[in-house]
Write a structure and sequence with these properties.
Elements: H1 5-26, H2 33-58, H3 65-90, H4 97-125
Helix pairs in contact: 1-2, 1-4, 2-3, 3-4
Length: 126
């Protein structure tokens, strides 16, 4: 297996998604039902998808380029939306440890969304 930019990006996306799941567990407290559902669905759902995609890269059986771009575009949109909603929910909360964890979770989600966008660019150019 050759290590490529795409496999490194997939590994980083997976690491950030799992980190977001852990931080989400440590900072439960969002009150808006839409935010709760979107965030949990995005973090857990894309952790599962990324495990499958990364396994495909490791086993030299990557998925179709168009499908990979589709997953990455959806991941970009969902992670950025989740991060924005999390930060919006927690920005005016009292300065507690939970707030710090939640803001970190939102920031990492936005960073992962940007990483998904770079994944789209690299996949398209590859």
């Amino acid at each position: 297996m050759a290590v490529s930019k795409l496999s490194i990006i997939k590994l980083l996306e997976l690491a950030l998604a799992i980190t977001c799941v852990i931080l989400h567990y440590k900072s439960l407290g969002e009150r808006d039902q839409i935010t709760i559902l979107l965030v949990a669905g995005t973090f857990v759902g894309f952790s599962i998808i990324l495990i499958a995609l990364f396994a495909g890269y490791i086993l030299n059986t990557p998925i179709n380029k168009k499908l990979d771009i589709f997953f990455s575009l959806v991941g970009c949109a969902l992670f950025i939306a989740s991060g924005v909603l999390i930060i919006q929910q927690w920005e005016s909360a009292f300065n507690t440890e939970t707030r710090k964890i939640a803001l970190s979770k939102g920031s990492l989600a936005i960073i992962n969304g940007v990483l998904f966008f770079f994944d789209v660019i690299f996949t398209f150019r590859d």
